[in-house]
Amino acid sequence: MKTVLIFDMDGVLADSWENCYPCCRRFMEALNQPELSSKEAILRLFEDNFMTSLTRIVPPSSIQSDLFLQLASEMNKALAKATCFTGIKPAIETLSKSHYLYLVTANFTSAAHTFLNNQQLNCFQGIFGADQSFNKTEKIRNIANSHPDDPVYYIGDTLGDILEGKAAGVKTVAAGWGWHDAATLRRGHPDYFLKHPEDLLSFINS
After folding, report:
1. Calpha distance 48→118 (Å, rounded)
2. What pLDDT digit, counting tens, does each position of 150-201 carry?
3. CB neighbours (10 Å) of residue 18?
4. Per DSSP, what are the bridge partners of residue 7?
5. Can you give the pTM of this predicted structure?
6. Which of 137, 149, 171, 181 has the least CB density, counted as fewest CB within 10 Å?
7. Handedness of CA 55, 17, 92, 189 (dihedral sign)
């Protein structure tokens, strides 16, 4: 039986925090929200769905489409500079030979394609970014529904990832090498916790 493995990108595949943070900071400053521009404040926004967290503070009507276009452009450039976490690329390449792999990210689809192409990591059957829907739960659920007879796992590195995966009704795997620390991730009660990218193969094979 094949397994469906749905991956987040930033913090799971891409070691991209230092590249992405300046983009997020400038986005918050453009929204006139300097109090949300620190690293700590931005990481807190990822304790839920990013847009859900943001629109609790910033009225949606004040978030102009041109700001998202600018953010998308900046994220594309940032991901062009990002690299894979050590050990993740061979794990993904091996898993893709026997399982169904998908990518669901809060980043933009164009940025995901840029990163994957640069890293020569073209192992995914579908790539779903924020420009398609801000709702990760919906996207994860749709993928799961397309594989009704297969076990489905969502691998994420933020508390928001874990909560959205659980809401979608799939098994959640916390990636302990990403943006949120272990204590924050465990608040979401993930079904599994992995410390290192290399642990993916032994986890799936077990």
Report:
1. 29
2. 999 999 999 999 999 999 999 999 999 999 999 999 999 999 999 999 999 9
3. 11
4. 103, 155
5. 0.95
6. 149
7. negative
